Amino acid sequence: MNIFTNDVMKNKVVLVTGGATGIGKGIASLFGQYGAKVMIASRKEQVLVSAAKDLQQAGVEADLCVCDIREPAAVEQLMVAVRARFGGLDILVNNAAGNFPASIEQLSPNGFKTVVDIDLNGTFNMTKAAFEHFFKSAGGNIINISAPFAGWGVAYQAHAAAAKSGIDSLTRSCAVEWQRQGIRVNAVAPGAVIDTEGLERLSDALAGDAGSTNACQASDIANCVVFLASDAARFISGEIIRVDSATGVDLLKLPST
Ligand code: HXC
């Protein structure tokens, strides 16, 4: 079986949250390049329209849906839209996230809650809905976007690190619980990625040259995601793969005293 072909994702339907910008757009584009039909979802209609147009101009069968993944009712509507447009779903990429740099002292309860709601609860809402609507009966593939620092302490990112650790845990639990139903669940933990809102937001807090020479491209993350969704990874589930060239360890610097 030759897995690494140009049409490796032909006839597959992929849904990418946060798929209009940054890493999500890179992931959506690469799936499309390999033949997948692509649905992108996010809160912002304007960027979705522009990204869907880019995909379509590149020859990808693509559509968009406005959705706040914090809202279970909106997530239900998204699943209905995917069914109506593409007839099914093979791959879910939980990429949408919210973030800002803030010390624990600066972080209000609502600030902490907001990031956990988007990143962790949003990932759960999407995962559960995709399972009920599609994967329970037909199997499927889920790739969550995590962060390297989820596994250890980090400055200015207590909220995001807590949310991403939760995503890592959810990844492992779903993988075990759904193993017999033909559903693989993995996560990719990107380091700093150039030309992304995340890097822009965090750049002042980033240590060393994480924001320049050590930053990777969205395509570096997308390649790993497509690999995990492919049959080349058919025995990989419950894994969290760092794609950061080992730069994630000291990504954020502490304030000088
Ligand atoms: C402290 C802040 C803050 C900041 C917001 N808050 N920004 N606190 N410092 N810079 C607080 C607010 O004061 C408020 O708390 C609470 O957070 C909710 O803010 P809202 O603006 O009302 O929330 P909302 O409109 O839902 O917006 C969510 C958001 C926003 C996360 C705050 O930034 C957003 O929509 N982001 C989406 C895009 C994004 O962040 N992309 C980058 C992802 S990068 P109070 O108490 O005042 O009510 C990423 C990579 C991680 O995830 C890994 C990097 C290496």
Kindly describe this structure.
This protein is α/β, with parallel strands linked by helices. The protein has one domain: NAD(P)-binding Rossmann-like Domain (Rossmann fold, 3-Layer(aba) Sandwich), CATH 3.40.50. About 40% of the residues lie in helices and about 15% in strands. The chain has seven helices and seven strands. The protein has helices at about 20-35, 45-55, 70-85, 110-140, 160-175, 195-200, 220-230, and strands spanning about 15, 35-40, 60-65, 90-95, 140-145, 185-190, 240-245. The protein has a seven-stranded parallel sheet, sandwiched between helices. Helix 1 links the parallel strand 1 and strand 2. Helix 1 (about 20-35) crosses helix 7, helix 3 (about 70-85) runs parallel beside helix 4 (about 110-140) and helix 4 runs parallel beside helix 5. The mean pLDDT is about 95. Hexanoyl-coenzyme A binds near residues 197 and 251.
Task: Summarize this structure briefly.
With 257 residues, this protein is an alpha/beta fold. The protein is built from seven helices and seven strands; from the N terminus they run E-H-E-H-E-H-E-H-E-H-E-H-H-E. It has a seven-stranded parallel sheet, with helices on both faces.
CATH homologous superfamily grouping:
NAD(P)-binding Rossmann-like Domain
Form type: globular
Radius of gyration: 17 Å
What is the N-to-C succession of helices and strands? EHEHEHEHEHEHHE
Instruction: Just name the CATH architecture.
Output: 3-Layer(aba) Sandwich
- Parts with pLDDT < 50 across at least 5 consecutive residues: none
Q: Per CATH, what is the topology?
A: Rossmann fold
What compounds sit in this structure? hexanoyl-coenzyme A
Q: List the strand order in the largest sheet.
A: 3-2-1-4-5-6-7
Distance between the termini: 58 Å
Average pLDDT for all residues: 93
- Domain count, please report it: 1
